[in-house]
Amino acid sequence: MNFNFGEVLTRAGQITWKYKILWLSGIIISLISLLSLPISLIFNDPFSSFMVSDPAEINQRMGLVFLVNGLIFLLSIASIPVYIVGMSIPSLATRHLERGSDVPSFGGLVRESLPYFWRVLGVYLLVFAGMFVAMMVFMACIGVLSVVTLGFGVICAFPLFFLFIPVAIFVFSFMEQGMSAILVDDLGISNALQRAWDLVKKNLGVMALMSIIIYLGAMVVSMVISVPMMIPMFGFFSNMGVEPDFQEFDKIFRNMTWWMLAFSPLYAVFQGILLTFMQSAWTLTYMRLTRKPGSSEPTLENENPILPDNDSDKTAIAPRPNA
After folding, report:
1. Nearest CA to 284 among 201, 189, 213?
2. 155 within a domain of the structure (yes/no)
3. Is 31 inside a domain boundary?
4. What are the pLDDT digits (tens) for 101-153?
5. Which region among 207-211, 234-238, 307-311 has the lowest average model confidence (pLDDT)?
6. Would 302 be classed as within a structural domain?
7. Domain count, the chain
8. Domain span holding position 161
9. What would the 3-class secondary structure string for 138-201 be?
10. What is the Rg, in whole angstroms, of the alpha carbon atoms belonging to the chain?
11. Is the residue at 59 inside a domain?
12. CA-to-CA distance for 118 and 191, rounded, in angstroms?
């Protein structure tokens, strides 16, 4: 299939720049993820335990460390729903624009994403649970091989770790197309995953190149944006001597954390722009691959069409009568 990468990326860039209200979803996600920094800074000093010799005080600090880590873990769990809604908003806005309608307000997009929430979350959890299980099985096999071969098996199996790169490209493409199938065509979880599988299988080259462009580009730009946030870290390494000075390390760590917090608003805006562009690009990719030019109906070659699970939307994609 002739796929116009330039058109999709240009269109995603236009949507991202014109509809800046969409950045808010990524900004909120980023700020929530950054909440762990002040929590860790206030309650969890990583170098203080090295400066304490009283066992009672050490036990007290360990309890505080477990409490703080528990709070950070709960914050991570609580951020998942926000992340799901935040990812859905740019995709829904792109769907509106591609169908010729206006983009609702941010609150309207949030409300519109709620009926899709559990299905998008289901795709997200199923894909990542599958990745986790596959990783555990792989690591268990490596562990058994290491024991049997006295460690030589790990060396022989090391090249297999490079396979994670194409596997990750496939998995993330599969997940993004499954989410787009739900948000664009209102499919259920199983039908969305089936459509995503068909799309990735039939357009593997398109998915691989789009993943490389999006994720590699995002990684490079993120590294450039993150450089100012790492300036205090250079002072951390320059102050490392033969004898560790934990008080000096503690001071540098705190300065580095406050410096990162000072840059967090700028970084959050960047994340908002990046999330909007990425989700818009993946949604456009899905719509370009499943629709003929000038048509709003999904058209996959050699495949029986999958009807939406929601009866109210069946009429929305029904063939139009001839004029």
Report:
1. 213
2. yes
3. yes
4. 888 899 999 999 999 999 999 999 999 898 889 888 888 887 787 777 766 76
5. 307-311
6. no
7. 1
8. 5-292
9. HHHHHHHHHHHCCCHHHHHHHHHHHHHHHHHHHHHHHHHHHHHHHHHHCCCHHHHHHHHHHHHH
10. 24
11. yes
12. 14
